[in-house]
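User: Could you write out the 3D structure of this protein bound to beta-D-glucopyranose? I've included everything you need below.
Assistant: Certainly. Input first, then the structure.
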Amino acid sequence: MSKASLFFKSLCLSLTLLLAVPAFPKPVLTNSDTEKKIDLLLGKMSLKEKIGQMYMHPGEYGNLSEDLKARIRDGQIGSILNEVDPKIVTAIQDEAKKSKHQIPLIMARDVIHGFRTIFPIPLGLAATFNPTIVEETARVSAIEARTTGVTWTFAPMLDVTRDPRWGRVAESPGEDPYLASLMGAAMVRGFQNDFKPGQSLAACAKHFVAYGAVESGKDYNTVVVSQQQLHDLYLPPFKAAIDSGSATIMTAFNEINGVPATANEYTLNEILKTNWGFTGMVVSDWGSTENMINHGYSKDLKMAARQSIKAGVDMEMVYTAYIDHLEQLVADGVVDERLIDDAVRRILRIKFKIGLFENPYPVQGELLAKASLELAKQAAMESMVLLTNKGGILPLKKGIKKVAIIGPMAHAPHDQLGTWVFDGKKEDTITPMMAFKEHFGEENILFEPALSYSRDFSKQKFGEAVQAAENSDAILLFLGEESILSGEAHSRVFLNLPGAQLDLLKKLKLETNKPIIVVILAGRPLVLTEVSKIADAILYAWHPGTMGGAAIVELVTGAQSPSGKLPISFPRAVGQIPVYYNHKSTGRPPSGNYLSMDKIKVGTNQVDLENRAVYLDVETTPLFPFGHGLTYGKFSFHDLSLKSTNLKVGESIEVKFKLTNRGKFKAKETIQVYINDPVASLTRPVKELVAIKQVELEPGNSRVISLEVPYRRLGFHNSQGKFVIEPGDYKLYIGSESQKTHTMTFKVLR
Ligand code: BGC
């Protein structure tokens, strides 16, 4: 087939995929009591009242004006965002009771990684590789949030991303679709808590879809993805969230291959509502309807309203395209009223599910309960990743008395909470400085921040820091990023430690020549190439939340071994980005050694093809790969075997091995299983994570472990968009991280 006809064929395929959109989402065939109640309500509501349900008002932040009250009584508002004063929420629901149909409002809030008790940022939660604890954190968040009357959270955020420049990487589950799926499903289970009355929030998996692929990490930017990337990389976490019952979905700000996510009939109507049979509600992101005018996709708000409702957006966040224009669009015959009915049905369904008709009011519950703070400490401990530990400097030896606590992040109670913490309070925070004083005694801590915040360039206090370091038995240097440097619309192109932090590390090393333990609190992977040369140990603590300081003390003193693993690769240099473990091979894979710039002969233009390098000036590999994270144990794998090396269709893979902890400390290891399909009808990534398991072992102990990988995990979407598992030879890798693994082979039979 000629190149031209091939191109034509693939064009036709994409057009078919784009055009084969049903006019209406699949009807939900259910006769349950709820559906009957919805039928009754819908039958009585005017078009205006229905459209009112589709509007989310931004709230008045602790106020309730007469105008807003009147609009609620008039049935013009379905939801309110960001109202957390229980008295106001009560008053709002009282007004709703006075409306004709007495439909309560669903109160929305971004409860992202905790409500009042703040847990690690979501990227840190992903680093736990432990869905059970993540589920627990979401449950506590829900119970705390319900005390204010909030019933809907805009979480989990499930945007897989390969770009640490993107500020929203802090909110994301990292670069792997399988890990993201585990985390997403766990968070949904936790927030929704089986819809227990008064103890659950409706979850909202966001941002649908491929927001993590924004160009160069520029927020809100253009997204161009292939069908395969869409289906195998960006969609799976959403599917997992829906399979675990996510009540709602939020659209994304970005366009996908030219069509904004908020008007995307293919992703919303066809994939989500029709193919996946999603019966919940879709909400736009803040202004993402109106933003389509800037995208160059809508002429005005009226057009944006038509495009969004047709694509399957049920509720509009804050902007007024729907309430201003839908009525007219229906009157003009441009929008079918059945689309409005379907949207309102979905909205009412969530309101029934979350129990609003029984009790829309704030409920009793404890904030910052002792058990919640313990959970926050445990989650923070499990999220922290020990990147390096030269000579086993950590944990600190017994008998250490004087400890120098240095650096701008040692006592930054607001910043260690991270991004998206509307309801967390810095007054509740346990900083490292506070926790170390508590543990070692105030008199034994030599505290010197040296820089007043992470971007500070003033070196005036460096002398005091050196002095503190000289007079101590152990030096802990707390570096990183303030919380404002990550999050929405907070992308960076320089991923070094900001301000004079690296200079501080260099100065301390030069002047004292003592071991330095660096603890980094940050909202994203930073470039640590220089730091890793100087530091004796690096503990990556992310923004760890309320109990971060207490968690760090436990790990540093060896009360618990670190167990966190990287959910995203750490680059050696910004120019390497994107650098990620599940990349493709190329026709000319790098041969190992890179040719450093200073070795290229002057006056020659000869290319050394034998020593093929991706870059001339930096190695191809990341500084720290996906899945990396040391423990205080020393784990080894033996006696690896596969139950069957010839898999029949549908048969799962069973790996058996013995894990031994040869170290001196009890520790928990995260076993990671990856696969590779070396020859396929479409080229496959060199590795894909397919299973994880955490095992804790006492020193000197071994355990025989069996691990099952479901057959389905071998599949991918082929060039026809069909999910397939192709027969042939496969590789299976198993280990403690993505790069240093044991290899086995097996065959999938026809
Ligand atoms: C963000 C969403 C968030 C919403 C409401 C938007 O700017 O993109 O993630 O849920 O605001 O606060």
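The first helix runs from residue 3 to 19.
User: Perfect, thank you.
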